[in-house]
Amino acid sequence: MQIAKNDKGEQIETVAVTKLVVLADTSKTDSDWDSTLGVKATSTIYLDKVKDPRGALHYKLISVNGNWKKDDSTYSLTNRVVEYGAAGWSYFGNTFGQNETKKPTSDTFNYTAPSSWYPSTTDNGAVGVTMTVKLSKGGSSWNFEFVNNM
Fold this sequence. Notes:
Blueprint: E1 2-5, E2 11-14, E3 26-33, E4 39-51, E5 57-70, E6 76-86, E7 99-102, E8 108-112, E9 127-137, E10 140-149
Antiparallel strand pairs: 1-2, 3-4, 4-5, 5-8, 6-7, 6-9, 9-10
């Protein structure tokens, strides 16, 4: 903050506002329909690309978001589960346990990965998000799983 006086002797305060925005190097959006074409799952994963000293490409998971959309209002969605993680081989550290499971209460989600997670390759593992939901219509119910990985 800067304080000064104008020509009339009035005090003028100038405040600078800085907005911090975390930008990811890349993102991947994908979507698919359940087998009955009644519900569509869409997700986006945001990642930073990192190369180790040997030049091997790693991905640092920043965040994931997505949704389920009903094309038919008679469908019911319950037991929503979102699993995301980065658990492949890594030059930078142990990626064991770099996954989280969430249970959103609505059809939309947005989660940020812990900043402590190491970048990971896609060798012997995955970097991304899996969405699972129980769908019901009429007297039938089934699980719909959708995976969006690098």
